[in-house]
Each structure stands twice: as structure tokens, then as C-alpha cells.
Amino acid sequence: MKSLLVKINTKLNAQGGFLKAVSVLVGGTAFAQFLAFLCLPILTRLYSPEDYAVLGIYVAIVSILSVIACLRLEIAIPIPDKDENAKSLLVISLAINVIFIAILYLLLLLAYPLIKDFHIIQQLSIWIWFVPLGVFLSGLYSALQYWSTRRKRFNDIAQTRMTQAVLGNGASLGLGLLAWGFGGLILGQLLSFGGGVLKLGSSAYKDIKQVTKKVAIKDTISEYQNFPKFSTLEALANTSAIQLPLIIIASLMIGPEVGYLMLAMKIMTLPMSLLGSTISQVYYAQAAEKKQQGSLKEYTIDILIQLQRISCLIPIGSIILYFLIPFLLGDKWYRTGEIILWMVPWFILQFIASPISMVMHLQGRQKQMLLLTASGLLLRISAIFFVVTYLGSYLAEAFAISSAVFYLICYFVFCKSIGINLASQFYILRKNKFFIMFLLVTFVFNSLIMGAI
């Protein structure tokens, strides 16, 4: 066993520490997700679907606002060759975050008399005033995390992810036992947003003190102006495409529907985001080199073949979850199992398309990516309003189906940008004919279950 571990460690370090870094980050994320999964059966018995619906609204609002809290300048922190430039970016990001939160509180103070009678605001009650705080903590952690990434403190980042999981879930469990209602979930989420900020912040402060050379703030903003211009809009559209439908559904349907939907998304995301993000990191790390060698198309085809094979686990897992949810979460959560079945095409296509999405940035097609992301937002919102107008319900189903359509479009756009034509698509299908047949069988079984609902 010892010799095997030595070989693995040697191999990781031989590749410039990249795989080692990825393994450390994946380990921290895996712990956080495993702890969340263990706590979920207890939390769903301490809190009602209506409580989770309010949490879903809160998280959706915070998530949308937090991606623009630093105007995306924080993601540029690892790029500069010199530490003084990176320090300048960090300071600017933190300053923008503080200014943004001050503006949010001012706007909320001025707008509250006009919006206090809205259904969503009434649901959030006093916790609406904690929205800017959640945005601040999320933006602060993001900026500090990118600085730690620059300094290659991957162990620290992994530890903060574990801290977030322990604090967030621990607070929600403790306050749930004290019957705090949805306030316990929101406070737990706030601790999750801010968990690890002190650890990363203290290290960043020591680093900044050591950087003596000053860089003009104006020059730094000018050099990295494309991040606020393009990346901010893309990130806002991308996050809104997932979170804004939750807010719309909550405003159109009174009751626990958003709670069911949010929990279904969380359950489906727990295992798939870990694997998908890891594959995405590895693909992006190799894609630039493959492009220079002229073998990006062949490399991507190999990745797609493997992704399609792994995606067979999604419908199997969803069927198992559908039958287990009443036992794991309680009978009142049966609707979550139904929504999970509707989400299967969405998550299969997202799992296959998302890892190769980085090729759009590699090919310098940021504007096309922005247009594609904005189209996804419009598609989802249009589907929800169409369904509520003509059917009156099935909003969660409309969200799931429109998301599947969006990721199908993304898949073909990404493939086209690489040069993967129709003939190559048939080649991929032939290589995966057994897995495609297996997917079709599980889809039929899935459909039979949904038909019986």
C-alpha cells in the first residue's frame, strides 16, 4: 500500500502539481458534499418544504447578485505575472464589493416601502435585510479564494470548503432543533457563504503587506477592463438562467413548489458537479496544448465518448432516488422525486456539454458565449410563462425540459466550434452504441414511472 501511494504521489508531482492540486480541491469538495448528504435526511424532517421554498428564494437572489459583486475582476487575480498587479486586482475587487453592498442596502432601504407587499418579500420577512450580507460574504470569499489559488494554497481552500459545510449544516441542524423555521436555514447558508473567510483573509493580509511596490489602480482597471465588460454579463446571464426561474416560480405559485425544486436540484448536483467540474478542469488544462498540436478535435471526441458512458449513471441514480426519497427525506417530499425524474435529460446533457464549454474561451468566442447564455435565460423564462399561461401548472417540469433543450443547443454549438461535424457525431454514437441503447431503455422505464405518477 505504501509503495502504491508513493507512486501516485510521484505521478501527481511529475505533472507540475496540477493533478495533485485538483485531487486536494476535489477532496475538500467531496467532504462538503458528503456531509451535506448525511445531514439532508435530518434537515428535511426539521424543516418543511415551505421553509426550503423561502431558502430557495433567498439563495437565488444572493447567487444572482454575488456574481457581479466584484465585477468579475476577482477571476483575473491569478493572471498577472507580478504580485503587485495581482495585489492591485485583489484590493480593487474588495473595494468594489464593499461599495456594491452599500449601494444594495441603500436601494433596499429606498425600495422597501414599494416592494414590501410583494409575495416574495413577505415570504422572506425580516430576512430580506440579510440578502446584501450574503452577497458581501460570497463576494469576499470569492476574491480571497482566487488570491489563494494564485498562491497555490489549495489545502487552505479545501479546508475552507470543509469549514463551510460544517458551519452551515451545523447551524441549520442546531437552529432546526430549536424550531427557528426557515431562519435557521438562512443563517446556516450565511455561515456557509462566509466560512473560511478569516483563514483566507489572514493569509492574504500577510501577503499584501509583503508586496511593497504600488501599482496604479487606474492602469490596472484599464488593463483588465474586459472582465467587467464581458465576463460580468456572461456570469450574470448564466447564474440568472438557473436562479431567476426559481424566483419567478415562487412568485407565480404560492406554496412549497420551489422548495421541492430546489432540493431536487441540490440532490442531482451533489455527485455530478464534483465529477463534472473535475473533468472540466482536466480538459481545460490539456485543451490549449492539444490545440497547438492540432489534435483538439480528436482529444475532445475521446472526452465526449467517456462522458456519454459515465452519463448512464444519471438515469439509474434518478430511478433509485425516486423510490428512496420517501424513506430518506420523509413522505412529504415525494414531489422532489417526481421532479428528479423530469430533470434526467437536463443533467445528462449538462454533464456532457459543460466540461467542453471552456473551449469557447480557448477559441476567443466570449461574445458568442454571452449570446448563448443569454439565450438560455430567455428560453427558460419563456417556457415558464408559456406553461403558466396555457396550463396553469407544471412550472418545474417546464424549467427542466427547457434546460435540457438549452444544453442540447450548447452541445452542438461547442462541437461546431471545435470542428466536430455530423459524421464525427455518428462516430461517437457508434463507439457508444451499447451505452446509447442502455440510456434508451432507462429513459423508457423512466417515462413509464412518470406516466404512472
From TrEMBL:
Membrane topology: Multi-pass membrane protein
Keywords for the protein's UniProt record, in alphabetical order: Cell membrane, Membrane, Transmembrane, Transmembrane helix
Recorded coiled-coil stretches: none
Membrane-traversing stretches: 21-43, 55-77, 89-112, 124-144, 165-191, 242-263, 310-328, 340-362, 369-388, 394-414, 434-452
Alphabetical list of InterPro entries matching this protein: Poly_Biosynth_Transport
Location within or outside the cell: Cell membrane
Keyword Nucleus recorded: no
Tree of life domain: Bacteria
Pfam families documented for this protein: Polysacc_synt_3
Main subcellular location: membrane
Protein name as it appears in the record: Oligosaccharide flippase family protein
Naturally occurring in which organism (per UniProt): Acinetobacter chinensis
